[in-house]
Amino acid sequence: xxxxxxxxxxxxxxxxxxxxxxxxxxxxxxxxxxxxxxxxxxxxxxxxxxxxxxxxxxxxxxxxxxxxxxxxxxxxxxxxxxxxxxxxxxxxxxxxxxxxxxxxxxxxxxxxxxxxxxxxxxxxxxxxxxxxxxxxxxxxxxxxxxxxxxxxxxxxxxxxxxxxxxxxxxxxxxxxxxxxxxxxxxxxxxxxxxxxxxxxxxxxxxxxxxxxxxxxxxxxxxxxxxxxxxxxxxxxxxxxxxxxxxxxxxxxxxxxxxxxxxxxxxxxxxxxxxxxxxxxxxxxxxxxxxxxxxxxxxxxxxxxxxxxxxxxxxxxxxxxxxxxxxxxxxxxxxxxxxxxxxxxxxxxxxxxxxxxxxxxxxxxxxxxxxxxxxxxxxxxxxxxxxxxxxxxxxxxxxxxxxxxxxxxxxxxxxxxxxxxxxxxxxxxxxxxxxxxxxxxxxxxxxxxxxxxxxxxxxxxxxxxxxxxxxxxxxxxxxxxxxxxxxxxxxxxxxxx
Amino acid sequence: xxxxxxxxxxxxxxxxxxxxxxxxxxxxxxxxxxxxxxxxxxxxxxxxxxxxxxxxxxxxxxxxxxxxxxxxxxxxxxxxxxxxxxxxxxxxxxx
Lengths: 496, 95
Fold this sequence. Notes:
The complex is a heterodimer of chains A (496) and B (95). Chain A is an alpha+beta fold and 496 residues long. Chain A has helices spanning 71-83, 186-203, 242-261, 307-315, 321-332, 336-343, 346-356, 361-378, 390-401, 407-418, 424-431, 439-452, 454-459, 467-477, 484-495, and strands at residues 14-16, 19-32, 69-70, 91-92, 95-98, 108-111, 121-125, 138-149, 153-155, 162-166, 173-179, 215-224, 234-239, 270-274, 279-284, 295-296, 303-304.
């Protein structure tokens, strides 16, 4: 039986009529393996083909056909398992999961029940709330990863009285990744799926395309009093976007709390999320819950992997986000916090490394996490659609480093760059923003400010803090273009 | 282990088989006969014997990830009672 020792942060508790509640979440994510052919047949897997053109006699469940395992799929499962820091099981087995449905021609799904190819693991996630605020990292346990075949597709809107069935997807290889019930809020569930997506994409084992259904989640939701006894859970099937995951959890948790507070009981059932209405509803109740009658598939011999096969995959693993974080901290002297944000996905990491190379790594990190991400968020863009490239942003940082412009002016220049007005150099030239470093010119400005403020000038000797007032006045007089270091130096010489 | 008429009804429903009520008891009797026969295996002492998963001692054959099949829609649909526009057509499966 699962235990769920971690209690959610109080900020994630839900207020009910009778007190606070916390949500307990476990996810089953189906990730389609990026293979050219199916798990047990040589038919193609490409998305969008004409109906039933990518179906072999094996996929159609014809009598006498024998499934043969696609080696590439085993490799992807092992690779993903290693990416989840999980136990790789050298012995695994395929079982039949029996149920009847129109798009399941065999009458059973070949899956792994008792002996999955990957066992327990764990990943670290970083929840981000609706306001973009990053929370503390959370460790989410992985229960298992197993391989199974996908079913076909039923189409219900081509005829009012019939269902149309396309078996192109039948037999496509899926990795089902089952988490432990370690998440406590919609933010955490969403961060978990995002992290899984990042991992499979970094590994190339699944393209992570949620719109095509290549990565989809079943969400198990229950509620309990903070730290109390676990409640009965409901499973919400096939939630296929981050936004829907949050919506479905919020709706379902509230529904369960309302029932419990009215003195009712939660029925363990499978529910559907209706994205149009933003609600969940019963798909099947416990009474007609499936009885899958699993048994070992006699058509398939058990899978026995060699340790050398696993080691070979391990040796060729790309850098995982966790390892990258550690490297960023060491190589670029970043704080744990900055390193985590910058190493999370490979695109962000690559952007940062381009930016930091040959520049002050800390300034690069500050710019990227501050103004740059701020502007992206505000304009609802992401890295791939950013109007400012890593090289362009680097060009701006270079002008700060060589004292062409001050950090303050740089913020204005950045806004114009983001607005598509050109490179940093073009904008600096065009708008005449080059910092005044001519000591004579600065001295003249300083003199004028001192003459204009005789009372204050007289007090500086007694109150050195007043020098800040003069720095401000000179900067203002220069339109922000005077070099602040030089201004300070001259003022001190004149006034102290 | 034995099955009741109620179990037979449930198994039939899971398999989408129609069984007349007056057939449930006779079928339960037949199934129990089979179960009893299989249960004789319980008399064999298997202490310390690894479960056997196959009669042949060999590793699972594996395939390379290559497209070698499919593109046989006519064959796939040949036995379907009804098809249209390349799809199988079956009685409506949702309300």
